[in-house]
Amino acid sequence: MNAFPLVYYVPGRYETYLEHVGEVLSKAGLRYYGRDVTDEFLRLTFSQQVEIIKSDIQDYMNENALIIGRSFGGYLILHTICEIGAYPGKILLFNPMLGRYINEKQRCGIIPPRADLLFSLAISGEFPEIKSLTIAAGDQDMQCPPDAARKFIQFLGSNARLIVMPGQGHNPNEFELNSIIMQHINLYK
User: Which of 24, 26, 73, 157 has the most Cβ atoms closer than 10 angstroms to its Cβ?
Assistant: First the structure.
């Protein structure tokens, strides 16, 4: 019998940890905690946000823990790991922001704080070691496209992998989320 891991979840901007992935975690009966990324949190500086996430995950610094992030939450998690220096557990990110993204076709873009840091560290080989990093990206996601995730992961080595979710955009459906979460925490073994 597999023990349920302790799960920590950081959602996208203007979401609570009880929504979206949080609903899937609740329905699966998993113990989890998270951080709301709503107005009060978003009024803080990016450095303060990272410090709060860093403080939160101190209880999740073991090989049995699972950290899940979605969109901006995934971006915050990766920046937090960069400050911590390494992570001994598993990280699962759904459609994470990975930095600067400009979509010429749609005439839109995202330039978050520290936009170039993650790729810079990955390319230079200085990105902190993570026991297991999985990025799940919807093949129709225009905000966090799978090509960006593929490019990022290629620099991280064998502990990182990409799952492309067919037919999914930035907000994957509940079935897709549940399937990937359950596979990732090995509940079906």
Answer: 73
* E strand or H helix at 149: helix 146-153
Residues 6+ apart with CB under 8 A from 43: none
- Could you tell me if 141 and 168 are in contact, meaning their C-beta atoms sit under 8 angstroms apart? yes
pTM: 0.92
Residue 92: partners with Cβ closer than 8 Å, 6 or more residues away: 66, 67, 68, 69, 134, 136, 180, 181, 184
Summarize pLDDT for 57-83 with one digit per residue, the tens. Answer: 987 888 888 999 999 999 999 999 999
Q: Please, what are the domains in the chain?
A: 9-184 (3.40.50.1820)
In what order do the strands lie in the sheet containing 7-10? 32-34, 7-10, 66-70, 86-94, 129-138, 160-165
Whether 95 contacts 69, CB under 8 Å? no
CA 12 to chain centre: 9
pLDDT digits (tens, 9 = 90+) for 171-188: 899 999 999 998 877 643
- CB within 8 Å of 19: residues ≥ 6 apart: 11
119: its two tokens: 């790729």
